[in-house]
Design brief:
- With 332 residues, the chain is mostly helical.
- It contains 11 helices and 3 strands; from the N terminus they run αβααβαααβααααα.
- The chain has a 3-stranded mixed β-sheet with strand order 2-1-3.
- The longest helix is centred in the middle third of the chain and has 34 residues.
- The radius of gyration is 26 Å and the shape is globular.
Length: 332
């Protein structure tokens, strides 16, 4: 009798373990299946009146951004006096800002006219890739522009030899390659995660941290990897740039008053752009996998305001750029 009970107990235990294993396998299979076809964006506000105000505001900002940056590109391309490497890189910075804004602003602006804001899964992943592609390229381009200023101020006699056309093109290719690799790393980690619901993103764009919160799996290690590939690199480069501009400003002492003033204005413009770009970037990506209510406003500044302010910063303090614009306008 005892043997029979023992055998029955053993069979029951094995059956229970078998069912538990089957349920675990089924749950794991369901967790790895992506059942989300679109995401719902909550946007900046749900208030219809505020949405109308924001629609007009962001539309004007976007127009100013595109017109201002393209004006810089056209002016540099059409002015022989602006053929130096500094303006070559500035033209590409303006081009990046224009394309970056165009990738996000039109949808965000039109979404303000609708009560329900949705984005397909593929379009969401495309936003993540484009966002980090252009942001990564701009990070490296700002480093290149800092090096260009270092050579121009600290080694003026060898400037055109060191920063020749071939070197400038090579540096530009490095910026795009670095941005692509960074974006590919971010994209692969986000894309392979399982999304099985919910599908509501408390933002107006798709980004890595909001998507990590929606994944149906533990994303701790993925979050650490994304921080290492984004926030840590951004922070290190930011401090390297600050040190490099400190070295550049210190080397201005032997220069004459006019040369010192011109170089100082240029460096101040570059440093301002560096702060406007890197401070929001560090705040958003150099922290653990979490989100804050203020993230949406920081993202707005990063996506809309920084690309708009860049052309204003570089033109208002640059006499050569303003003169070239006047000449180009007169010809037109």
């Amino acid at each position: 009798m005892n043997c029979r009970r023992l055998v029955l107990g053993q069979m029951t235990k094995e059956k229970t373990e078998s069912l538990w294993h089957l349920n675990s396998t089924s749950s794991e299979h369901l967790g790895n299946r992506n059942t989300v076809t679109e995401f719902v964006l909550l946007g900046l506000t749900q208030n219809p009146e505020w949405q109308k105000v924001l629609f007009v505001t962001f539309l004007l900002i976007y127009i100013v951004t595109v017109v201002g940056n393209m004006l810089i590109v056209v002016t540099i391309m059409g002015s022989p006096s602006l053929g130096t490497p500094m303006y070559f890189f500035l033209a590409y910075l303006s081009f990046i800002d224009t394309v970056y804004s165009t990738a996000f602003a039109p949808k965000m602006i039109t979404d303000l006219l609708y009560e329900k804001k949705t984005i397909s899964f593929k379009a969401c992943m495309s936003q993540v890739f484009i966002d980090h592609l252009f942001a990564g390229a701009e990070v490296i381009l700002l480093v290149v522009m800092a090096y260009d200023r270092y050579v121009a101020i600290c080694k003026p006699l060898h400037y055109l030899v060191i920063m020749n056309r071939r070197v400038c093109v090579l540096m530009l290719l490095v910026a795009w390659t670095g941005g692509f690799l960074h974006s590919l790393f971010q994209f692969v980690f986000i894309y392979q995660l399982p999304y099985c619901g919910p599908n509501v993103i408390d933002s107006f764009v798709c980004d890595v941290y909001p998507l990590l919160k929606l994944a149906c799996t533990n994303t701790y290690l993925v979050g650490i990897s994304l921080i290492a590939n984004g926030g840590v690199i951004c922070t290190v480069i930011f401090f390297i740039l600050l040190v490099s501009y400190g070295v550049i400003l210190r080397s201005l002492k032997p220069h004459g008053l006019e040369g010192k003033r011109k170089a100082l204005y240029t460096c101040v413009s570059h440093i301002t752009v560096v702060f406007l770009f890197f401070v929001p970037c560090i705040f958003l990506y150099a922290r653990p996998n979490t989100t804050f209510p203020v993230d949406k406003f920081i993202t707005v500044f990063f996506t809309f305001m920084t690309p708009m302010l860049n052309p204003l910063i570089y033109t208002l303090r640059n006499a050569e750029m303003k003169n070239a614009m006047r000449k180009l306008w007169s010809k037109m």
